[in-house]
Specification:
This protein is mostly helical. It has one domain (3-225). The chain has 9 helices and no strands. The protein has helices at residues 3-22, 30-49, 62-77, 85-93, 105-109, 114-148, 162-174, 179-196, 200-220.
Length: 226
Protein backbone atom coordinates (compact mmCIF):
# COMPACT_ATOMS: atom_id res chain seq x y z
CA UNK A 1 0.00 0.00 0.00
CA UNK A 2 1.43 3.36 -1.04
CA UNK A 3 0.93 5.54 2.05
CA UNK A 4 2.22 8.62 0.27
CA UNK A 5 -0.44 8.31 -2.45
CA UNK A 6 -3.13 8.00 0.23
CA UNK A 7 -1.88 11.00 2.22
CA UNK A 8 -1.67 13.17 -0.90
CA UNK A 9 -5.34 12.50 -1.66
CA UNK A 10 -6.60 12.84 1.90
CA UNK A 11 -4.59 15.90 2.96
CA UNK A 12 -6.36 18.59 0.85
CA UNK A 13 -9.79 17.27 1.87
CA UNK A 14 -8.85 17.02 5.57
CA UNK A 15 -7.46 20.56 5.56
CA UNK A 16 -10.55 21.80 3.74
CA UNK A 17 -12.86 20.19 6.33
CA UNK A 18 -10.76 21.49 9.25
CA UNK A 19 -10.80 25.08 8.04
CA UNK A 20 -14.51 24.84 7.23
CA UNK A 21 -15.17 23.79 10.83
CA UNK A 22 -13.42 26.95 12.03
CA UNK A 23 -15.69 29.30 10.09
CA UNK A 24 -17.70 31.37 12.54
CA UNK A 25 -15.66 30.33 15.59
CA UNK A 26 -14.43 33.90 16.19
CA UNK A 27 -17.61 35.84 15.58
CA UNK A 28 -19.77 36.43 12.53
CA UNK A 29 -16.95 38.01 10.53
CA UNK A 30 -14.90 34.81 10.75
CA UNK A 31 -17.53 33.01 8.67
CA UNK A 32 -16.23 35.06 5.78
CA UNK A 33 -12.54 35.79 6.39
CA UNK A 34 -11.84 32.17 7.36
CA UNK A 35 -13.50 31.06 4.12
CA UNK A 36 -11.24 33.41 2.16
CA UNK A 37 -8.21 32.15 4.10
CA UNK A 38 -9.28 28.56 3.41
CA UNK A 39 -9.50 29.30 -0.30
CA UNK A 40 -5.96 30.70 -0.40
CA UNK A 41 -4.47 27.86 1.69
CA UNK A 42 -6.20 25.10 -0.30
CA UNK A 43 -5.22 26.76 -3.59
CA UNK A 44 -1.59 26.72 -2.50
CA UNK A 45 -1.79 23.07 -1.49
CA UNK A 46 -3.41 22.11 -4.79
CA UNK A 47 -0.66 23.94 -6.68
CA UNK A 48 1.89 21.86 -4.77
CA UNK A 49 0.03 18.59 -5.42
CA UNK A 50 -0.83 19.31 -9.06
CA UNK A 51 2.21 17.52 -10.56
CA UNK A 52 1.97 14.68 -8.03
CA UNK A 53 -1.65 13.60 -8.64
CA UNK A 54 -1.94 12.96 -12.37
CA UNK A 55 -5.71 12.43 -12.45
CA UNK A 56 -6.28 15.89 -10.93
CA UNK A 57 -6.95 17.44 -14.31
CA UNK A 58 -10.34 18.79 -15.48
CA UNK A 59 -11.55 17.31 -18.77
CA UNK A 60 -14.02 19.32 -20.82
CA UNK A 61 -16.61 17.09 -22.50
CA UNK A 62 -20.27 17.26 -23.39
CA UNK A 63 -20.97 14.50 -20.87
CA UNK A 64 -19.39 16.57 -18.09
CA UNK A 65 -21.37 19.67 -19.12
CA UNK A 66 -24.67 17.78 -19.19
CA UNK A 67 -23.96 16.05 -15.87
CA UNK A 68 -23.11 19.36 -14.23
CA UNK A 69 -26.31 21.02 -15.46
CA UNK A 70 -28.47 18.03 -14.47
CA UNK A 71 -27.05 18.01 -10.94
CA UNK A 72 -27.68 21.76 -10.63
CA UNK A 73 -31.32 21.26 -11.65
CA UNK A 74 -31.69 18.42 -9.15
CA UNK A 75 -30.09 20.49 -6.39
CA UNK A 76 -32.45 23.45 -6.70
CA UNK A 77 -35.45 21.42 -7.88
CA UNK A 78 -35.59 19.18 -4.80
CA UNK A 79 -35.23 22.04 -2.34
CA UNK A 80 -38.12 22.16 0.09
CA UNK A 81 -39.37 18.64 -0.68
CA UNK A 82 -37.39 16.74 1.96
CA UNK A 83 -35.85 17.41 5.39
CA UNK A 84 -32.24 18.58 5.22
CA UNK A 85 -29.43 16.75 7.01
CA UNK A 86 -29.68 18.74 10.24
CA UNK A 87 -33.47 18.50 10.31
CA UNK A 88 -33.33 14.77 9.65
CA UNK A 89 -30.81 14.22 12.43
CA UNK A 90 -32.93 16.29 14.84
CA UNK A 91 -35.98 14.12 14.09
CA UNK A 92 -34.08 10.86 14.46
CA UNK A 93 -32.17 11.85 17.61
CA UNK A 94 -34.81 13.96 19.31
CA UNK A 95 -32.24 16.72 19.82
CA UNK A 96 -33.66 20.13 18.83
CA UNK A 97 -32.05 21.72 15.80
CA UNK A 98 -30.01 24.80 16.69
CA UNK A 99 -31.07 27.91 14.77
CA UNK A 100 -28.50 29.12 12.24
CA UNK A 101 -28.16 32.24 10.13
CA UNK A 102 -27.70 32.16 6.38
CA UNK A 103 -24.23 32.55 4.86
CA UNK A 104 -24.90 35.99 3.42
CA UNK A 105 -22.01 38.49 3.37
CA UNK A 106 -24.34 41.30 2.25
CA UNK A 107 -26.27 41.03 5.50
CA UNK A 108 -23.01 41.49 7.42
CA UNK A 109 -21.01 43.95 5.32
CA UNK A 110 -23.95 45.83 3.81
CA UNK A 111 -25.74 45.82 0.47
CA UNK A 112 -23.42 46.16 -2.53
CA UNK A 113 -20.33 46.66 -0.34
CA UNK A 114 -17.02 45.83 -1.97
CA UNK A 115 -16.14 43.50 0.91
CA UNK A 116 -19.33 41.50 0.41
CA UNK A 117 -18.76 41.23 -3.34
CA UNK A 118 -15.17 40.20 -2.70
CA UNK A 119 -16.30 37.38 -0.43
CA UNK A 120 -18.96 36.28 -2.93
CA UNK A 121 -16.42 36.29 -5.76
CA UNK A 122 -13.98 34.27 -3.64
CA UNK A 123 -16.67 31.76 -2.78
CA UNK A 124 -17.76 31.25 -6.39
CA UNK A 125 -14.16 30.88 -7.58
CA UNK A 126 -13.34 28.50 -4.75
CA UNK A 127 -16.47 26.41 -5.25
CA UNK A 128 -15.95 26.26 -9.01
CA UNK A 129 -12.19 25.76 -9.28
CA UNK A 130 -10.98 24.29 -5.97
CA UNK A 131 -13.76 22.32 -4.29
CA UNK A 132 -14.24 19.95 -7.27
CA UNK A 133 -10.55 19.09 -7.25
CA UNK A 134 -10.44 18.44 -3.51
CA UNK A 135 -13.66 16.45 -3.28
CA UNK A 136 -13.36 14.43 -6.48
CA UNK A 137 -9.79 13.37 -5.70
CA UNK A 138 -10.81 12.30 -2.20
CA UNK A 139 -14.16 10.63 -2.88
CA UNK A 140 -13.80 9.20 -6.36
CA UNK A 141 -10.07 8.86 -6.95
CA UNK A 142 -9.20 7.58 -3.47
CA UNK A 143 -12.12 6.46 -1.29
CA UNK A 144 -14.17 4.63 -3.93
CA UNK A 145 -11.20 2.63 -5.14
CA UNK A 146 -9.78 2.10 -1.63
CA UNK A 147 -13.04 0.42 -0.57
CA UNK A 148 -12.54 -1.98 -3.46
CA UNK A 149 -8.87 -2.67 -2.79
CA UNK A 150 -6.24 -1.25 -0.42
CA UNK A 151 -3.81 -0.86 -3.31
CA UNK A 152 -6.32 1.54 -4.81
CA UNK A 153 -4.12 2.84 -7.60
CA UNK A 154 -4.30 -0.60 -9.20
CA UNK A 155 -8.10 -0.24 -9.51
CA UNK A 156 -9.16 1.25 -12.82
CA UNK A 157 -11.37 4.32 -12.67
CA UNK A 158 -13.60 2.38 -15.08
CA UNK A 159 -14.20 -0.29 -12.43
CA UNK A 160 -17.77 -0.54 -11.12
CA UNK A 161 -18.52 -2.03 -7.69
CA UNK A 162 -22.05 -1.60 -6.34
CA UNK A 163 -21.47 -1.24 -2.59
CA UNK A 164 -18.64 1.33 -2.84
CA UNK A 165 -20.64 3.10 -5.56
CA UNK A 166 -23.65 3.47 -3.26
CA UNK A 167 -21.68 3.94 -0.04
CA UNK A 168 -19.41 6.73 -1.25
CA UNK A 169 -22.35 8.50 -2.90
CA UNK A 170 -24.36 8.29 0.33
CA UNK A 171 -21.44 9.63 2.37
CA UNK A 172 -21.02 12.44 -0.15
CA UNK A 173 -24.70 13.27 0.33
CA UNK A 174 -24.65 13.16 4.13
CA UNK A 175 -21.80 15.63 4.46
CA UNK A 176 -23.91 18.18 2.60
CA UNK A 177 -26.88 20.04 4.03
CA UNK A 178 -28.95 18.85 1.06
CA UNK A 179 -28.28 15.15 1.63
CA UNK A 180 -30.69 13.73 -0.94
CA UNK A 181 -29.52 16.01 -3.72
CA UNK A 182 -25.95 15.28 -2.63
CA UNK A 183 -26.55 11.53 -2.81
CA UNK A 184 -27.97 11.77 -6.33
CA UNK A 185 -25.13 14.11 -7.22
CA UNK A 186 -22.62 11.52 -5.98
CA UNK A 187 -24.25 8.81 -8.07
CA UNK A 188 -24.03 10.95 -11.19
CA UNK A 189 -20.42 12.03 -10.67
CA UNK A 190 -19.30 8.50 -9.78
CA UNK A 191 -21.23 7.09 -12.72
CA UNK A 192 -19.50 9.57 -14.99
CA UNK A 193 -16.09 8.46 -13.70
CA UNK A 194 -16.94 4.77 -14.19
CA UNK A 195 -18.34 5.46 -17.66
CA UNK A 196 -15.47 7.61 -18.93
CA UNK A 197 -12.67 6.00 -16.91
CA UNK A 198 -11.27 9.42 -16.03
CA UNK A 199 -11.65 11.67 -13.01
CA UNK A 200 -11.43 14.87 -15.03
CA UNK A 201 -14.98 14.68 -16.39
CA UNK A 202 -16.38 14.54 -12.85
CA UNK A 203 -14.16 17.45 -11.81
CA UNK A 204 -15.54 19.53 -14.66
CA UNK A 205 -19.14 18.47 -13.99
CA UNK A 206 -18.72 19.36 -10.33
CA UNK A 207 -17.31 22.75 -11.29
CA UNK A 208 -20.21 23.44 -13.67
CA UNK A 209 -22.73 22.56 -10.95
CA UNK A 210 -21.06 24.79 -8.37
CA UNK A 211 -20.70 27.69 -10.79
CA UNK A 212 -24.38 27.56 -11.73
CA UNK A 213 -25.38 27.20 -8.09
CA UNK A 214 -23.24 30.18 -7.10
CA UNK A 215 -24.83 32.32 -9.79
CA UNK A 216 -28.28 31.13 -8.69
CA UNK A 217 -27.57 31.95 -5.03
CA UNK A 218 -26.54 35.52 -5.80
CA UNK A 219 -29.20 36.09 -8.47
CA UNK A 220 -32.11 34.74 -6.43
CA UNK A 221 -30.76 35.53 -2.97
CA UNK A 222 -31.03 31.80 -2.20
CA UNK A 223 -28.39 31.95 0.54
CA UNK A 224 -29.69 28.74 2.11
CA UNK A 225 -27.69 26.79 -0.49
CA UNK A 226 -24.47 28.29 0.92
Amino acid sequence: MNRKSIILRILPFALFVLLTSLQGQWGESSRYWVYCLKTVVVAGLIAYLWPKIKEMRPIFSWEALVAGIVVFIIWIGLDGFYPKTGELWAKLSGVPLKPTTSWNPFSFYGDNSLQAWGVVFTRIVGATCLVPLVEEVFYRSFLYRFLIQEKFEKVSLHHFSLLPFLGVSLLFGLVHHEWLAGFLCGLIYQGLVCYKGKLGDAITAHGVTNLLLGIWVVWKGAWNFW
